[in-house]
Design a protein that fits this description.
Number of strands: 8
Strand content: 25-35%
CATH architecture: Alpha-Beta Complex
Distance between the termini: 65 Å
CATH class: Alpha Beta
Largest sheet: 8 strands, mixed
CATH superfamily: Spore Coat Polysaccharide Biosynthesis Protein SpsA, Chain A
Number of helices: 6
Low-confidence stretches: 7-15
CATH topology: Spore Coat Polysaccharide Biosynthesis Protein SpsA, Chain A
Order of helices and strands: HEHEHEEHEEEHHE
Helix content: 25-40%
Length: about 180
């Protein structure tokens, strides 16, 4: 009996291949990176995690709250899931397990505010109703959308633009998967 070694290797790779998740952190608080790394580490069991920490050295004076850094990272990402993790937000232990179950191409979820929950719904997919840390989006869904540089609410504008392009691509999880500003408390 002969064994097709290439077929066996291919089947093994198919089972063992992990989906890419690129986590982008615009960083102005490097002292928080160790704690962020601890919240990201469990994801390596389920995903091929790439963590891009993009430092804010003030190279773009028009940029607000890491928007230039987010755009630079987007230019480098070709495929897979993209998640923007602010340098003061911590990922919930269930984040990766829940993301692995998502069937659609983008997902929005609740966020723990410390004193309550920021909810999520199709009606909240707009400026001042949703935070960048509440969504994970496949790179191809983002397409050529970028963050406006001189606007503080650019994250909400970004989410609203991507969502409105095709709401049917989105899934909603009614559970908090990140701790908003947890490293500021």
């Amino acid at each position: 009996m002969s064994v097709d070694v290439e077929a066996v290797i291919g089947a093994y790779k198919g089972v063992m291949a992990k989906e890419r998740l690129t986590i982008v952190t615009p960083c102005s608080r490097p002292h928080n990176l160790q704690r962020l790394a601890e919240s990201i580490r469990p994801g390596r069991l389920l995903f091929d995690v790439v963590w891009l920490v993009v430092f804010d050295f003030g190279e773009c004076e028009k940029s607000k709250v890491g928007n230039y850094q987010r755009n630079c990272a987007l230019d480098a990402i070709e495929s897979g899931w993209v998640y923007f993790l602010d340098d003061d937000t911590v990922m919930h232990l269930d984040f990766f397990r829940e993301l692995a179950k998502v069937k659609k191409e983008a997902v929005a979820f609740e966020q723990d505010l410390g004193n309550g929950i920021r909810p999520v719904s199709p009606e909240r997919m707009r400026v001042q109703k949703i935070d960048m840390g509440q969504v994970a989006i496949r790179r191809e869904v983002i397409s050529d959308t970028r963050f406006e540089l001189g606007i503080y609410e650019a994250d909400g504008m970004f989410i609203e633009t991507v969502y409105n392009r095709d709401p049917a691509r989105w899934e909603f999880l009614h559970k908090p998967l990140t701790y908003y500003n947890a490293l500021r408390r």
